[in-house]
Amino acid sequence: MAKPVVDRLERDLAGQADVLRLSAWSTVGRQLGAQYGVRGVPTFLLFDGTGQLIHYQVGRLDAERIKSEIDSLGR
Predict the structure, then answer these.
(1) What's 2-73's CATH class?
(2) Do 66 and 48 touch, CB atoms closer than 8 A?
(3) Distance CA 59, CA 2 (A)
(4) How is the chain split into domains, by residue range?
(5) What is the secondary structure of 48-64 as a DSSP string?
(6) By CB neighbour count within 10 A (0-12 exposed, 13-18 middle, 19+ buried), where does 49 fall?
(7) Is residue 11 helix, strand or coil?
(8) What stretch of H or E contains 46?
């Protein structure tokens, strides 16, 4: 289940990154899902500070990889 992993990421990244959760069934979730080609749930999208998509992951979330990618953005 992705929720505990995302909860932990949200705590671990406080002050470094914002975590936004969208339901695939909400109007906004469906619109953004179509825009970014989301075909499975859960899907995790990581954007840099300019709004560029830098990571796209479907399925089980690898929290350590996400944290590493965020850390590399600050360099």
Answers:
(1) alpha beta
(2) no
(3) 8
(4) 2-73
(5) -TTS-EEEEEESS--HH
(6) exposed
(7) helix
(8) strand 43-47
Degrees, nearest 5: CA angle 47-29-51: 20
Instruction: Work out whether the CA dihedral 42, 1, 66, 6 comes out positive or negative.
Output: positive
For the segment 20-73, what is each residue's pLDDT rounded down to a tens digit?
A: 999 999 999 999 999 999 999 999 999 988 999 988 999 888 889 888 888 888
Are the C-beta atoms of residues 9 and 29 closer than 8 Å to each other? no
Position of tokens 């671990």? 12
Are 54 and 30 in contact by the 8 Å Cβ rule? The answer is no
pLDDT of residue 43: 92
